[in-house]
């Protein structure tokens, strides 16, 4: 089954930027584009029944889609306007998509509210990659030789899905993958005879981290031999190191393992920080 790239639109400038990004990516990957808008009937609008409101919504979506079709006349585009709760509709659409693309507001407290109310729930529930795009995203950044930046941590299997997405995206764009691994000094009680031997064999902490990154990248280098790869290993907090490199990226790819708590779904501090502060589009890929 061919999975489409699905873009969620709501008429905002952020969602229109996401739609534009999704259209370009669909063309690169040779995939169809699905455009989805979820709306709720507002009985407070006097004189506007459900059919009337549906007509208004459909007209707005059609105008947005018209621009994409004009830019990409050979792109197969389908449109779905559904009545229902947005998080449920978007997360459900992601199940059948290669990726879900959404708009994300800029820096500041409003972004935190967006992630907490809609975006965070969609990201936490989606089983497929979710890409967030800001208003003002420029296609020129994709052609300026900027890298696809991806965060890697743990053992090779921990980030396999994240690395796969990064390499597939870089291959479609003719871009370099810049893989980032951050490390910190472990607490003294974390050392054991076995871990000390591993560190000694590697020649120290930083060489050990470099070996770990190289090992994680090896299968993807073999699978995508034409994709250039740059390795970045730096001591520091994962979020700060990743953001320092993401400033030169056309796309940043992070993984997530959603956690649920009494206050709802949490997507992890590193992912949350990158979504708040990265200037480029961010792809959040669920761990397998």
Could you explain how this protein is built, in words?
- The protein folds into two domains: 133 residues, 3-Layer(aba) Sandwich (Rossmann fold), CATH 3.40.50; 146 residues, Rossmann fold.
- The strands form two sheets. It has a ten-stranded mixed β-sheet, sandwiched between helices. The protein has a two-stranded antiparallel ribbon with strand order 10-11.
- The longest helix has 22 residues.
- About 3% of the residues have low confidence.
- With 288 residues, the protein is an alpha/beta fold.
- Helix 3 crosses helix 4.
Please give the structural blueprint:
Layout: E1 5-8, H1 13-29, E2 33-39, H2 50-71, E3 77-83, H3 86-95, E4 99-104, H4 109-125, E5 130-134, E6 147-151, H5 160-173, E7 177-183, H6 193-202, H7 205-223, E8 229-235, H8 238-246, E9 249-256, E10 259-261, E11 264-266, H9 269-277, E12 282-286
Parallel strand pairs: 1-2, 1-4, 2-3, 4-5, 6-7, 6-9, 7-8, 9-12
Antiparallel strand pairs: 5-12, 10-11
Helix pairs in contact: 3-4, 6-7, 8-9
CATH architecture of the largest domain: 3-Layer(aba) Sandwich
Strand content of the residues, in percent? 15-25%
What kind of sheet is the major sheet?
Answer: 10 strands, mixed
* N- to C-terminal distance: 20 Å
Strand/helix succession: EHEHEHEHEEHEHHEHEEEHE
Radius of gyration: 21 Å
Low-confidence stretches: 107-116
Q: What percent of residues adopt helix (DSSP H or I)?
A: 40-55%
Can you tell me the CATH class of the largest domain?
Alpha Beta
Strand order of the largest sheet: 3-2-1-4-5-12-9-6-7-8
CATH topology of the largest domain: Rossmann fold
Count of the separate structural domains: 2
- CATH level-four homologous superfamily name of the largest domain: HUPs
Overall geometry comes to elongated
State the helix count: 9
Overall mean pLDDT stands at: 84
